[in-house]
Design a protein that fits this description.
globular; SH3 type barrels; 3 domains; 39% strand; 290 residues; 25 strands; 6-stranded antiparallel β-sheet; mainly beta; endopeptidase fold (from Nostoc punctiforme); 5-stranded antiparallel β-sheet
Amino acid sequence: MNLDPRLNAWREDLADERLRDRVTAARYVAGQPAWVVANRTAVRASSTPRAETVSYCHYGEELRVFETAENIAWCQSAFDGYVGYVDTFDIEPGPAPAPTHYVATIGAYTYDAPDLRSMVQGCLPRHSAVAVARTGLVTRGTEYAWINFAGHVPLACLSEQPPRSPDLATAAALYLGCPYLWGGRSFFGIDCSGLVQSAFRDLGITVPRDTDMQQGTIGELVSPGSQADLRRGDLLYLPGHVLIYAGNGAVIHADGASMTVRRDRLAGWLRARGLNLKNLTIRRHPLAAG
């Protein structure tokens, strides 16, 4: 059976036990739970040195590990089902602790001590699920929370509920000016499909990781007769790229040409490439417009 290896852990020598009746492999394993303890860890397409980075997993993200060899783990994300290879020193075996809070800002620096002048440990991306071990640490008027493996985080950057935005375009606009990064899905760097995935996360909705997966699954296919028929939050796909319609003729997208998340005028963007609406696949999710 032709299963997408990006979403199904199988190779000729090893496969997920849950796929036993669907694929042929020399060996099947159930996989072991683990979770990400680094700010983010690169998900690579293979275990070979300098393999392509295809996505990232963030702090608190749960994984299922099928193989560990030479400090590389072959695993699958519990968040979006993406399969790939990560460095073992970025993950911790066992179930992730139940989150008490989530990073609610676009990102939150972590510190060696509860003091903004202390050494920076790292920076947690938006939506990172954290288990606060201790609060009440106040320095220079700022209260900090202690988080295992992360350090001291300003409590004001956290919320007890996952962060939310009123609509998809508003969520996408949070990333305006962020650098483009192939495989990225945070303010550290983000690609076009990562922007869509991260923006939908602000609506409490998990969508697939890559553009080709999204193009066939998110919402419903629509065929507007003109730009006036587009709705805020519509997703505009062409091979290898996606733009989010922000209303009033504007789109927001992670642009690989200028290497940044930017707002463009849709008509001018299409005209510069010799395209029109008929060249696009347009998807509309019922909750994207708020």
